Automatic annotation (TrEMBL):
The chain crosses the membrane at residues 52-74, 103-120. The keyword Transmembrane helix applies. Pfam families: DUF1757. Keywords: Membrane, Transmembrane, Transmembrane helix. The keyword Membrane applies. It comes from the Eukaryota. InterPro entries: DUF1757. This is Transmembrane protein. The lineage of its organism: Eukaryota, Fungi, Dikarya, Basidiomycota, Pucciniomycotina.
Length: 171
């Protein structure tokens, strides 16, 4: 037995579903926060990269992961173990979801490294790493969605947009 009287297998399924919600929150906020940060910076008389990267990093990894974790907890709170196992199995077997997560992860790593290399003297390193990773995650998600569109799988893109709308409406 493990935490809360669940078996280790059931606990892994709970963790898998919770991680999925956290990743979805990060991916959603990675798409939303950069345009908002740029728009807020355009109102200022001098354009600087530091506030953009700081706001993008904090919004994506701080707010996005917290909201995703909260939604995951709220969703699983009403589920029994069988429901969580079904949801975890669906997440594990969805090839498009795995591919999207992989693209987002790779994009995040490349974004963090690239932004740090390019903006090393203009923006403090913590903000280039987090902001660049957020931009990379957004790039990975957009790359995945554009690939689905090119392959003629528009229903998957619409499904992703519906999931984001569902997350926003749950608030």
């Amino acid at each position: 037995m493990s935490v809360l009287g669940r078996t280790n297998s059931a606990q892994r399924d709970y963790q898998e579903v919770q991680l999925h919600y956290v990743q979805r929150g990060i991916q959603t906020f990675a798409l939303i926060s950069p345009p908002l940060a740029v728009l807020s910076q355009l109102r200022r008389p001098t354009f600087r990269f530091t506030p953009i990267f700081r706001a993008t990093g904090i919004a994506t990894f701080g707010v996005g992961s917290a909201i995703g974790a909260g939604l995951g907890w709220a969703t699983m709170r009403g589920m029994n173990d069988e429901g969580v196992v079904r949801k975890a199995t669906k997440i594990k077997t969805d090839a498009n979801q795995r591919r999207e997560d992989d693209y987002a992860f790779i994009g995040g790593a490349l974004g963090a490294l690239t932004s740090t290399a390019i903006l090393l003297r203009r923006v403090p390193i913590p903000w280039t790493l987090t902001g660049g990773a957020a931009l990379g995650v957004a790039g990975g998600v957009l790359t995945h969605l554009s690939k689905l569109t090119r392959e003629g799988k528009n229903e998957k893109v619409n499904e992703w947009v519906d999931k984001v709308k569902e997350i926003i409406d749950d608030d």
